[in-house]
Fold this protein.
Amino acid sequence: GWLLPWFLAESPEVRGGVSLAGNARHMLDVLVPQYEYLAKVDDDRIGPLEQMQIDAIKEKVKRAKTKDLPRDTPKSEMPLSVSAAYWQSFQSYDAIATAKKIKQPLLFLNGGRDYQVTAKDDLELWKKGLAGRPDTETKVYPSLNHPFIAGEGKSVPSEYDKPGHVDAAVIDDIAKFVERNK
């Protein structure tokens, strides 16, 4: 979802775009909050070992943001063990600025229980950044998690292991958006 504006800018013939839990913040800026959430999900606190992991990812994120990052930096020193070249290719990408320039209609959807790409942080940035565009829509589904499957309470990674289906309301809203914009 973060790259949706980029894809649409590169493909003006595409009639519109739907972002399912797409981050508005840079990909590197969503990682540390995710680690912090996961550290606190079981007991609402960050223990010493968890803090060490958070500090390690903070250091990797800082390194990945370095303008003169050597392309041969070992993957082990990069966030998510992804190559330095990958992170360099997105250093100057601004999803909201790119979305402001495209002509296609946009639909941004978020689960209210999503801890990876939150409605509070990301969907609000999309709404604020694209305010005034009449062809931009947003919607939050309070009981849905990152993969748009219903649940209760705090969302946890083990939820993703349970079989489930994307909520029918999400599919219906996407179908209506497509119908309005064909």
User: Anything to note?
Assistant: The two ends are 20 Å apart (CA to CA). Residues 48 and 110 are 32 Å apart (CA to CA). Strands lie at 17-20, 106-111, 136-141.
